[in-house]
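STRUCTURE:
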């Protein structure tokens, strides 16, 4: 047999061997080593978002129930239906509706834990501070489950983030998606609408201690929105300290609360010393009057294992809000007002009235609630009257008059200038 014929036969045998291997070991790949969804497929083809009336987010021992109430208002059930963060909820449902698979990973249930998608958290993960998958369940108004997805560990790279997910009814494996779902937790406080009061055009601030007769209260007033605050009962022997009221000009402008708690919980957390309670009444030039009552919580036990180099944890306070309004019906017109300015001033007055009523609506929504805040929020209101004023310096009657020493005569008298030629 010629060598060329032998080479051809060996080549045919090699091809047949490769074909047999592929048939034997990869012929059933479509059924045993492939997920139901392929890269590019949508996680949900037809997610009925408009039918969703309840969203439950759970992880470990924590859970949050977001419920649609009357007038399509969503609330957090664990916080007495306090208004939900609509942006966060909208982003969650929108992301799930449009989510596409970037990669499928065939896996059985015993391997779900590697992706952070096991039904129960392993001891190793718990020790590392990981409490298992975040389960998101969407239900209709009658309680029918519409869809359920589990959010596992983060995937992707430092440039392109992602997350491993598993969907209810699909046991073929897990999927990597190009969405990290920021802010989606099982903690009720993370789902609250954090819009808070902001004081514009403050006219006066009054601070008292209702249960402490020894407390010296104070009141600050100013003539205009651009004016400087001044202690209302400033005596002739006192002066205002420069910059002492600067922090009050932007009071609560950047404030945020941490949580909303029930009255029962507040009673458990509150410092029992009622003398520490303070009451602040804040009036504005646009007709709003806010009444804030705040008091400290009990001191939290110190963590013996905490790093001493880290800043200390700020004390927490409890706060309630009440609001009243008395809007002017007409604009005060000056005697020298020009007709050409009246139209612009009327339009400005009307716009201010609209904004004032919007602020009133927000404050009314916050009434009847107890907010948990950090001390930094109310620290400008914790000043004492002595922090604003100082005594005038008056010369003492026994102070001798200042003696001005006489100037000594010059050693060399000045010579006259020579005459000009």
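SEQUENCE:
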């Amino acid at each position: 047999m010629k060598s060329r014929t032998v080479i051809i036969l060996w080549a045919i045998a090699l091809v047949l061997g490769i074909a047999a291997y592929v048939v034997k070991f990869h012929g059933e790949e479509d059924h045993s080593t492939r997920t139901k969804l392929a890269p590019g497929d949508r996680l949900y083809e037809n997610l009925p978002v408009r039918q969703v009336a309840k969203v439950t987010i759970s992880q470990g021992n924590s859970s949050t129930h977001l419920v649609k109430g009357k007038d399509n208002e969503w609330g957090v059930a664990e916080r007495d239906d306090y208004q939900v963060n609509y942006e966060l909820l909208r982003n969650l449902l929108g992301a799930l509706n449009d989510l596409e698979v970037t990669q499928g990973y065939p896996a059985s249930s015993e391997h779900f834990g590697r992706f952070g998608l096991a039904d129960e958290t392993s001891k190793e993960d718990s020790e590392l501070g990981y409490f298992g998958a975040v389960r998101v369940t969407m239900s209709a108004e009658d309680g029918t489950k519409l869809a359920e997805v589990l959010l596992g560990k983060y995937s992707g790279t430092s440039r392109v983030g992602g997350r491993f997910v598993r969907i209810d009814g699909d046991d073929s494996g897990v999927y990597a998606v190009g969405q990290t779902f920021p802010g989606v937790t099982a903690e009720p406080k993370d789902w609250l609408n954090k819009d808070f009061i902001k004081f514009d055009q403050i006219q006066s601030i009054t601070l008292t201690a209702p249960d402490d007769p020894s407390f010296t209260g104070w009141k600050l007033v100013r003539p205009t929105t651009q004016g400087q605050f001044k202690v209302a009962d400033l005596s002739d022997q006192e002066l205002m300290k420069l910059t002492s009221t600067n922090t009050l000009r932007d009071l609560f402008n950047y404030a945020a609360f941490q949580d909303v708690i029930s009255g029962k919980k507040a009673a458990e957390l509150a410092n029992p010393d009622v003398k520490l309670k303070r009451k602040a009444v804040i009036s504005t030039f646009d007709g709003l009057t806010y009444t804030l009552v705040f008091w400290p919580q009990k001191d939290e036990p110190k963590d013996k294992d905490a790093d001493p180099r880290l800043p200390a944890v700020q004390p927490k306070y409890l706060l309630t809000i009440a609001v009243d309004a008395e809007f002017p019906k007409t604009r005060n017109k000056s005697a020298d007002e020009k007709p050409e300015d009246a139209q612009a001033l009327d339009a400005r007055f009307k716009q201010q009235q609209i904004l004032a009523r919007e602020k009133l609506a927000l404050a009314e929504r916050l009434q009847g609630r107890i907010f948990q805040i950090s001390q930094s929020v109310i620290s400008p209101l914790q000043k004492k009257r002595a922090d604003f004023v100082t005594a005038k310096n008056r010369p003492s009657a026994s102070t001798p008059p200042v003696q001005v020493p006489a100037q000594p005569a010059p050693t060399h008298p000045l010579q006259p200038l020579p005459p000009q030629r």
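REMARK: The longest helix spans residues 339-366.
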